[in-house]
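Progress narrative, Year 2. Work on Helicase HerA central domain-containing protein from Paenibacillus faecis advanced from sequence curation to structure prediction during this period.
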Amino acid sequence: MKWLIVSGGFHRIVTSCLGRKMESVHPNGLELPELGEFLSRENPALDGVLITDQAFSGRPGQDREDLTALLRWIENGRKPGIPVLIVTRDYLKPQELAPLTKEYTNITLIVSDQVRIPSEVFAEAMDQQSHKKLTDIHRSAKSEPKRVTEEPEENKLPEKKRSFFDRFRSKPEPKAEPEATDRLTRDLLNVSRGISRVAAITGHRGSGLTSTVVNLAHEASKRGLSTIIIDMDAEYRSTNMYFSRFHERTNKDEQMSASLIRTLARPQDYMTTAFNIKDNFWLTGLGYSFHDRKLMEQFYTTEKLIGLISVLRTKFNLVLLDMPLDLFRVFRESMIHMDLFGLCVPNNLHAVLSTIRNVEVVMDQERASYLNAKSKVIVTKYNDRSRFQDSLFAPDKVSELLTSGLSDYFRYEMKTAGSVPYSDGFDSQIETDIPAIQAGAEYEKAFGQMLLRLMEGA
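Result:
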């Protein structure tokens, strides 16, 4: 059976769930806004459509239009009855799509309450749809439907009763699921099921914190992990530069401009106080127009941040905090509630010394030791021409130098989570709104490996 998989960056994971008799009609990920062009260009023969959260744009009106266009294409293409299966974590989706589900009987919605929808949910759902007796899928629109007549009661065979010994018979072995062939995808699948991580990405200002947070979040979302960014940098508010829709919304909506404060005040209401980037990907921060000192004093506190972390770790696979080192002056008590730290350090001696100096100024030795023990080094803006003691200043050398005795505050060896390749065009993602992981395979691989190391924990 041929399935149209509409799952954005989740495409590879979903297609790995397809049974032997199923295949995807396209090799790469598709989202709802791209469907119109794809269908008109390819006009594929289909037996079913699967849509996941990653396909939706986050704009309900536009999503309904795109979904309606798909359903009309199915009807106009004389393919009535093709199942359209929507698997989602959004409990509001049934209400949002109610007009369509009433009009089109071939839509099936499955709402999962799990943090990350298991792959077997997709496999079972598609298998059930494949075995449904939809007699009108492949017939011409002009042909008459076959009538199914009830068999007379007297001709029916009596139902076979279960034997007492049936309960002791061994059950058939479950069918093995196809495994992903990509090593990184396999590794991420192995460590991410049911796992929740709270990771504070930190370092001295200017060391690439925000770009690291943004690309890690995009990569995690693409891999099917529910993710939220908490931009705690109330001074620079850099996430506004990377998410133009969030910035535009904060300019028009005072409540969204205060998103971080509202989310700190009511963590359980994050779905209304935070900004939905895309289905399983959320952001909370401050707009440039927010300047309410009283609210900041009331809610921008360690106690509120601890409460927020406690709630969000039960809702998301990955909670990413954009947390410059100097903020730990105010939020030092929250450190114990973070699972690990991604310590951003460019590979040059000045950056290493600045990182050590910032830690010594901001923290006491006890807090610094905790940061040291729970950190993985992220070498940002990695320059493969940078040298130290006449040899290449490699990523592992950055970690080694930090703990080489330059400071009593760094006593424990730190592993490297990964490195970000340097490029003159790296910052173009601010103007284009396109994350670096979508600009080249080297960035996708770099942040994928980094994500894997962070999900593994400290």
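The two ends are 44 Å apart (CA to CA). DSSP finds 20 helices and 15 strands in the chain.
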